Amino acid sequence: MRNAFINELVAAAEINDNIALVVGDLGFSVVEPFATRFPKRFFNAGVAEQNMMGLSAGLASEGFHVFAYSIANFPTFRCAEQIRNDVDYHNLPVTVVAVGGGLAYGNLGYSHHAVQDYALIRSMPNMLIAAPGDPMEARACMRYLINNPQPSYLRLGKAGEPCIHAEIPEVSPGKWLAIREGEKGGVSYLTTGATLELVNQLLTQRPDLKSCSLNSMPLWSMKLKEAQAQQVENFEKIITVEDHLMDGGFGSWLLEATSIRPELLARIKIKSLNSKVCGMVGKQYTLNMLGGLSEKIVAIL
Amino acid sequence: MSTTQILANRIRQNALKMVHRAKASHIGSALSITDILAVLYGEVMNFNPADQDYKLRDRFILSKGHACVAVYSTLAEVGFIPKEQLETYGDDFSWLMNHISHKVNGVEFSTGSLGHGLPFGVGKALAAKARGETWRTFVLLSDGEMDEGTNWEALMFAAHHKLTNLTAIIDYNKLQSLDSVANTLGLEPLVDKLKAFGCAVHEIDGHDHRLIAEALLSSIADEKPTVIVAHTIKGKGVSFMENRVEWHYKNPNDEQLTKALAELEMTYA
Questions:
Q1: N or C: more exposed end of chain B, with fewer CB within 10 A?
Q2: Are the Cβ atoms of A54 and B123 closer than 8 angstroms?
Q3: Count of the separate structural domains present in chain A
Q4: Is 70 exceeded by the pLDDT of residue B268?
Q5: Which among A41, A48, A58 has the least Cβ separation from residue B123?
Q6: For position A43, which CATH number holds?
Q7: Is the predicted pLDDT of residue A103 greater than 80, yes or no?
């Protein structure tokens, strides 16, 4: 996903002089293609994320579309108020980019576990969350953001994720992206971010889940709640899957969005990370299992 | 009286009336920066009140957003907003919020939480430099605000990138919200610290219009980002407000307003 991100960014910057990349002294072996090709639009803000986000907003106020890149919680929680006041409130085109979404950096410890980021970002009225599930969705999200510069948060994994989509899908905010057709009106899994792979694999391996459909939602936000209940209505049951805590997460967002139609609420089931992963260390897979994203648990309809 | 002094006097009068009417705080902080604003808008900055987005304008950012009445008042005096609008200050649904708001014509950036203006200004200065544009960015900060680490992060960045088009002005009135700067988190030796961070520092009397203008105009030649340390008096211009912590919060009653306005008339008569 990191490579999909940088390739899209470089391609866009070739034709758009206003694209800038600001990093918080991170991005080794990722950002070089941009830094080398566009040195005048590449800035390393050093290990100072609050200034990084503030100056990104300043650049954006002068017409740049700024991608502010760092890892895990550094470009979000560390500079939460700069995102809230400077970027979101002023409605400026800054895309906050975090690599290591979820437990991708599981071995690096709690400081590097991004399992509360949706909660922070989705509390801001203008921020659009882009949480692609594979490199194709990452490219699609980048193209959407570049064509529609706005306050936004791009949550990436690391590198080497498999492609689920055969080609770059058409994405649009709040729209469910059909990955697998199932029984019409039956059970559908709905993922955002890296859990797409987990569920896709599960549905491939388990004949008993053959009737389930799979949708992903890479683009969502506070502003996009209105149309969700209608989409929920199309299925007997929706199982949301996310590598984030339930509190303030994606499933909670869908529940809030559906609360305008209380009779539909019982159709939604949330599979998310249990807070017992907080403070634990291990590989992404191990921690996801510990947190409740095991095949066994996710398969329970 | 010079033009900028007349402007400063009007800004002070408007500001006093605004906080009186709205029963709002921070008049001491507003009076402290009034002379700096009068010189910036009266003599130094390039701007067009008919077009707030005028491309070549100099950018001004009030980082100590709580002193907004002084800026709103200045914007009304120079023609960005109608003077009647000042009377809506602090009203329900008024765009003239009690911390500076970008929803007001002529305001670049909303602040209110301290430590945001300078990083944002760094971004603007960086944009101008990247595009080879010659406009300047001025950021006005409070002294207490220098407790915020973001300002020092921003200064390091500005010095590293040689943002000579950036001028930070520190309103050094020596009083914070509860006590003096010295008793809160001492800033001294402030000038030495700023120099050590790679800035060109000008230390001036922040109420002397000639010195303010000289510092602001001559600093264009600085080969480093400029910081002007402006020694000021909180509550400047109203005897009973000067150097008094309580005027960070209090608003003048009818009698105090009359007295304050009379003093201003006399001072500048």
A1: C
A2: yes
A3: 2
A4: no
A5: A58
A6: 3.40.50.970
A7: yes
Q: Which ipTM value was assigned to this complex?
A: 0.97
Cα distance between residue A25 and residue A31, in whole Å: 11
User: Helix B3-22 and helix B254-267: axis angle, to 10°?
Assistant: 180
End-to-end C-alpha distance for chain A, whole angstroms:
30
Between CA A134 and CA A115 the distance in angstroms is 18
Distance CA B249, CA A228 (A): 47
Check if the beta carbon of residue A155 is closer than 8 Å to that of residue A131. yes
Say if CB B41 and CB B70 are below 8 A apart: no
Mean pLDDT for A188-208 is 96
Distance from CA of A84 to the nearest CA of B (A): 11
From residue B122, give the alpha-carbon distance in Å to each of A54, B128, B139, B147. Answer: 8, 10, 9, 18
**Which CATH number goes with the domain that contains A255?**
3.40.50.920
Give the pLDDT of residue A185: 87
**Residue type at A139 in one-letter notation:** R
Tell me if chain B has a CB within 8 Å of the CB of A229.
no
* Cα B9–Cα B13–Cα B19 angle in degrees, nearest 5: 140
DSSP run (H or E) holding A255:
helix A250-258
A32-76 residue pLDDT tens: 999 999 999 999 999 999 999 999 999 999 999 999 999 999 999
Same domain assignment for residues A35 and A145: yes
Do the chains contact at A55 and B123, CB–CB below 8 Å?
yes
Say if A182 falls within a structural domain.
yes
Counting Cβ atoms within 10 Å, is residue B201 exposed (0-12), middle (13-18) or buried (19+)?
Answer: buried
Homologous superfamily of B3-267 in CATH?
A: Thiamin diphosphate (ThDP)-binding fold, Pyr/PP domains (3.40.50.970)
**Local confidence band at B269 (pLDDT 50, 70, 90 cut-offs):** low
Helix B209-218 vs helix B27-39: angle between axes, to the nearest 10 degrees?
60
Question: Which residues of chain B make contact with A59, given a CB cutoff of 8 A?
Answer: 123-124, 126-127
DSSP A61: H
What pLDDT does residue A81 have? 98
